[in-house]
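so my prof wants the structure for this chain in the tokens format not the other one, which i didnt know existed until like an hour ago. anyway here's the sequence
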Amino acid sequence: MRILHTESSCGWGGQEIRILTECIGFINRGHSVTLLCSAKSNLHRAALDKGIPIALAPISKKTFINLLWLRNWLNTQSSQFDIINTHSSTDSWLVALASQLISKPLPLIRTRHVSSPINLKWSTTWLYQRAVEHIVVTGEPLREQLIYINHFTPSSLTSIPTGIDLKRFYPRNKVAIKKQLGLEGSVIGILATLRNWKGHKYLLKAFHILNKQHDHLKLLIVGDGPQANNIQNLINELDISNCVYCVGQQDNPELWLNAMDIFVLPSYGDEGVSQAVMQAMASNIPVITTAVGGMTDAVQDRQTGLLIETHSSDAIVTAINELIANPNLAQQLAQAGYNRAQQFFGIDTMLDKMELVFNSVLQKK
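here's what i got, hopefully its the right format
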């Protein structure tokens, strides 16, 4: 297949990582892949590093000029591709509208990575049910939301969780990893972009309480993002800087995950299924998280992890204390999470399912 991916986002997070993972995976399977993105985007720089073929486009904003540019580009370039996979709202709208203005439009697939509600306007329904051939979502709860709230046709939707590299994320010797990274004590950890809705604030306030109850606890924060200064200010305000490790963005997150004894992601935002949660599960770490978005595809409460309410430091304290007091439960949850990751969340599983979607759409044409 000859696949064109489009992405208007200039940010960085799980969505962009999934796009890169899919591109590399499909290239390795012998498909032709090109990524259409903004020259100013983080995705552009990351794709260059990965050797993914790129086409640069002014698609970061919904403007008439950008629409005309894309129409002209598709008019001359669409014969080079079999199918287009869009990823964000802006590029999906631009591609869908531009496709109406060319003589030989390509079939469109929309991947929706987040769980934020979709409005009920007729134009939005047109985009999702007429302009695109199929919708891929990253978790079954996201699919159910679009069926029962937006009344989208069930057969037009497929849930395909993001695949993670099980050859990279796996259990390692925790003692050796902590020594290698210069960490000590029992480590509560979070790996996430530093956005407010990832819930760092609630984790820090919970740790402030836990630190008074357990003198051996440390908190490890891995990641960077727009909330970095606010998080550091809160650490200083709570006077816990001597037992919090803020290590920023890391190129080897698999090692930092393996230094954690408990993984916590108290997100209250528009998650699909968090890649970090799946990576922690694949690393055999007990997980505490919330039931937002598609998270329940990965974590079933008290089976493969603990689910807690959102916006609650007290809930975090209770869950962590339960795992500290009951190491057998922590071990059972970690093992069950590991088994689930092995069964459902590998890259090949994701690629196999995406190939089926692409092929089914192309066979209709």
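also thought this was worth mentioning. The longest helix spans residues 327-344.
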